[in-house]
Amino acid sequence: MRPSQSLIDFNKQILVGETGALIGTPLAPFFTARFTANPSIISFSAVLGGLVAGSVGWLIVKMRDEKKRGTNSMLQLTGQIALFSPAAFLVGLTVYQPTLFLVARHLIKDGERVVYSALISQFAAFSLFLVAINFYRIALHRFAGKQI
What we know:
This protein is mostly helical. It is 84% helix and 0% strand. The protein has helices at 5-32, 39-68, 74-109, 114-144. Helix 1 runs antiparallel to helix 2, helix 1 (5-32) runs antiparallel to helix 4 and helix 2 (39-68) runs antiparallel to helix 3 (74-109). The two termini are 20 Å apart.
């Protein structure tokens, strides 16, 4: 069974967003570590760096895909973002960010390099996020008949 183009686009958008987060997550603590050695502050900067860079990457690809699909309606795009953003934010707060923070802090406390710690924690957090957000997409489609 071939996956739908909508499923492919959704996961592509998530992956591009995560690629942006992969850039922001190690860069933010790399620069933050220049100003402080506090593992909690460095780990928190990884969270913020990933959140900002990931959101920008996701939004750019989402807008491009909607334009390519011929859905130039700003209202429709806004509706899809309204369905996705709160769920992504909630999954991010409950799954992604705690995993990123706790794994990075644990690795940094154990003496691992900051960038290495950020990347390993990023991979763990993204894996859990991708599974959870796809479950949300499936539930949204089955129970509410909505597509994002």
